[in-house]
Design goal:
Number of helices: 12
Helix content: 40-55%
Largest sheet: 6 strands, mixed
Strand order of the largest sheet: 6-8-9-10-7-11
Bound molecules: adenosine-5'-triphosphate
Low-confidence stretches: 403-414
Number of strands: 11
Order of helices and strands: HEEEEEEHHEHEHEHHEHEHHHH
Strand content: 5-15%
Distance between the termini: 138 Å
CATH architecture of the largest domain: 3-Layer(aba) Sandwich
Amino acid sequence: MAVKSRTPDDAFHPDDSYRMVLERLTELEGRNQELREELRQSKTDRQYLETQKVRYEREVRKLRSEIEQMRSPPLIVGTIADVIDNTRVVVRSSAGPKFLVRTSQFINAEDLKPGVRCTMNQQTLAIVEVLPSAYDAQVYGMEVESRPGESYSDIGGLQRQVAELREAIELPLKKPHLFERVGILPPKGILLHGPPGTGKTLLARAVAHETEATFLRVVGSELVQKYIGEGARLVRELFENAKKNAPSIIFIDEIDAIGASRGQETSSGDREVHRTLMQLLAGMDGFESRGDVKIIGATNRIDILDMALLRPGRFDRIIEIPLPDVEGRLSILKIHTKRITLADDVDLKKVAGITEGKNGADLAAICMEAGMCAIREERTAVTQDDFEKAARKVTLDFERNRMTYSSGTGTMFA
Ligand code: ATP
């Protein structure tokens, strides 16, 4: 059948309108697709913004509470002295006096124990929180080492002292059954005394090394604190720390700073020092001889120590560490020259002979100085002449320092 051709008059032919509708539909579908895509994108954006909002709100809350905390007045730190009941507690503030105060209901009643540190509101002194007893040993100048590196072979001379120390510290820690069998209590601690630089610290570290014990070193003057009761608390914590790390050796250097003889106290400072000493004595009485915590005290001034410290049962042995004699000096020199390259002409016996009156620390300094002489002259080995020069130099420096200090505020090397 022949198809009738369309003329220009056929403007509104139904096919045209059909095509137009189709085009419009396709266009609208495309648009619809675009809008759907936009909607999906907007939804993801909204979700993202909502999570951002939550994050910022959390941040704002955190900053607000931080500002709040910064604005809040500081709390006083005190110690619980007595617990009357769950709501009433006697506390001692670090300034001294005791108060009967209330506690916050959020504090666990079991945490309230005498001796525990707590924080208190400034105005009402009510206990706000109980502080943990854990402390940072380093803050209080305590040195804690799990096993020092020095051994007996690093100690020159002092054979008798080493033997005594091994008997009093090493034996009870390593073979406690020997003491049980004989039926005696092993020594709790020993006191080393003698001039400075003679190896007291070295001995204590070596015994800790040999017994594989934790070495806790504290200097007596660090235990003297500004506030009442703080020194005693430090001593208590020192003992607690030692028990926790047992077997351990507590080494109290310069024990005369707290252990000086108690006379007529003149100031509250003196009384605080004596309170610290009392705590030390109580601590020493408090732990078992058979336990695995031992104390080694060291002092250059045994003459001023309190008799209470010197009685048996506290420091059971008092060992003098004297200045080394010629034999001692020779073995110390041998130890300190172990790693030094020596020339053939070096005669350490001669060096020991010319260093009369020198302590271990001086001899170590002489060896180092002799090495410096060799380096200065670009040699690889140290000669006898270097040692002699070094001995003279160390003597001279040392004497000059001694003169400077003794003509100043007081004699330094008493
Ligand atoms: P202070 O009383 O001043 O604390 P101290 O008696 O504790 O002194 P140490 O700190 O033990 O003396 O010694 C200082 C240094 O001197 C040691 O590190 C060591 O190098 C050396 N020294 C002292 N005595 C000896 C020794 N007998 N054998 C080997 N080295 C020693």
